[in-house]
Design goal:
alpha/beta, TIM Barrel, binds beta-D-fucopyranose, 13% strand
Length: 446
């Protein structure tokens, strides 16, 4: 028997997400300056296929056609990010009119097609000029971010459905500054914790500045979150899972909602704990209007550090398909924190796929992944979690960070040689699903 989808509120928002560096291309066009990802891509061995973001999906030059495609897919909302080094090339001082114009065209083009624009200010592409001054490890950079946020919010705020300050600060801090596998490629736990503190501080300071400027759009932040479970019931694995949860979930949630970092994590960090100034935590705790959650998989913690449970279904990233983890996570966050409205700002899966002889992309695995996770969101709503929207990651196949163009997350296939876009079966299914939700017609079944 097919399972029917749980009910979603009438005004629930259905969308898709991208980020600037991953799709725009035009990396050095119309005054855009280098970001840390342009630099990182030129570091030998950093990107598996040796690629970069110079062209990506060439979205910058194909904006109107891409907007038409979003309309044709029936998207109600689109989450995108602005490239800081496109609008303010040095991350300080002069603004680049052509860069600002691009986002004007994007936002107005969405609104003209009835699609709600959800802006993220920082999806990892720090202007290289600011990295040259120490990057996020330098407290001054938080002040530069506030200036950028306020300018963007003043210019676009009355046309946006919401503004998120940061995307996944854990990734920036941990993968970028401790593990060194993301830009800027540093390997120091001490630096990473300081960076995470400065990211959170810049978030709180930016909220205060945007609110003081009278910006009307709801303001929030996007976190990657997941349940961390022990691989075995040994004390060792249990302790590791608790620490992993502390680093990923409680570090960010306790700071944002309780104004403190979790004491067990601080103890583990010892001398690697960040340096705080008086008043920082009160700024970080500034109330947000919404919380964005990105969910892909759970973490099974043991030896080796992170392993999918044996026998589990995996995506092309090697990530376990575990939809109920999304329900568990949301219910737990609601239990432990005074949550504002929540949006699932990213959820999706990489699978290797390509058009067949008829030009169709039959991505049944991705369809099932999306359907099961959407159902898991519905289960969380039924359990009283206030979730207001869901964004598929991603609208397009795109530049997947250190994996370059080797991992395809899109519901729209991109042929990088021709820039041809082909909606996959998942996009066609999603269109039908959104339409059925909107009209209240019989819901497609799982
Ligand atoms: C998230 C990122 C997004 C994309 C997906 C797969 O961590 O926010 O840019 O890379 O993972």
């Amino acid at each position: 028997m097919p399972t029917t989808f749980p009910d979603f509120p009438k005004d629930f928002v259905w969308g898709a997400a991208t980020s600037a560096f991953q799709i725009e291309g035009a990396a050095f066009t119309d005054g855009r300056a280098a970001s840390i990802w342009d630099t990182f891509c030129r570091t030998p061995g950093a990107i598996v296929d040796g690629s970069n973001g110079d062209i990506a999906c060439d979205h910058y030059h194909r904006l109107d056609a891409d907007l038409d495609l979003m309309r044709d897919l029936g998207l109600q909302a689109y989450r995108f990010s602005s490239a800081w080094s496109r609008v303010q090339p040095d991350g300080a001082g002069a603004w680049n009119q052509k860069g600002l114009d691009f986002y004007d065209r994007l936002v107005d083009g969405l609104l003209a097609r009835g699609i709600a624009p959800y802006l993220t200010l920082y999806h990892w592409d720090l202007p290289q000029a600011l990295q040259d001054q120490g990057g996020w490890a330098n407290r001054e950079v938080a002040l530069r971010f506030v200036d950028y946020a306020e300018t963007m919010a003043r210019r676009f705020g009355d046309r946006l459905a919401s503004i998120a300050t940061h995307n996944e600060p854990w990734v920036v801090a941990t993968l970028g500054h401790e593990q060194g596998i993301f830009a800027p490629g540093l390997k120091s736990r001490r630096t990473a914790t300081q960076v995470s503190h400065h990211l959170l501080l810049s978030h709180g300071m930016a909220l205060l500045a945007m609110r003081a400027a009278g910006v009307k759009a709801p303001l929030g932040i996007v976190l990657n979150q997941a349940p961390s479970v022990p691989a075995t019931e040994t004390d060792g694995d249990r302790a590791k899972a608790k620490l992993a949860d502390g680093l990923l979930v409680r570090w960010y949630m306790d700071a944002l909602f309780r104004g403190r970092y979790p004491s067990d994590v601080l103890l583990d960090l010892g001398d690697d704990a960040p340096e705080l100034h008086d008043g920082d935590m009160a700024i970080i705790r500034t109330p947000i209007d919404f919380l964005g959650i990105n969910y892909y998989t759970r973490s099974v913690v043991g030896e080796p550090a992170f392993t999918p449970a044996p026998g589990s279904e995996l995506t092309d990233m090697g990530w376990e398909v575990y939809p109920q983890g999304l329900t568990e996570l949301l219910v737990r966050l609601r239990r432990d924190y005074p949550l504002p409205p929540v949006y699932i700002t990213e959820n999706g899966a990489a699978f290797a796929d390509a058009p067949d002889a008829q030009g169709r992309v039959h991505d049944g695995d991705r369809c099932r992944y999306l359907q099961r996770h959407i159902a898991a969101v519905g289960d969380a709503i039924a359990a009283d979690v206030d979730v207001r929207g869901y964004f598929v990651w991603s609208l397009f196949d795109n530049f997947e960070w250190p994996f370059g163009y080797t991992k395809r997350f899109g519901i729209v296939h991109v042929d990088y040689a021709t820039q041809q876009r082909t909606p996959k079966d998942s996009a066609l299914w999603y269109r039908e699903f959104i339409a059925a939700q909107a009209t209240g017609a019989a819901r497609p079944t799982l």
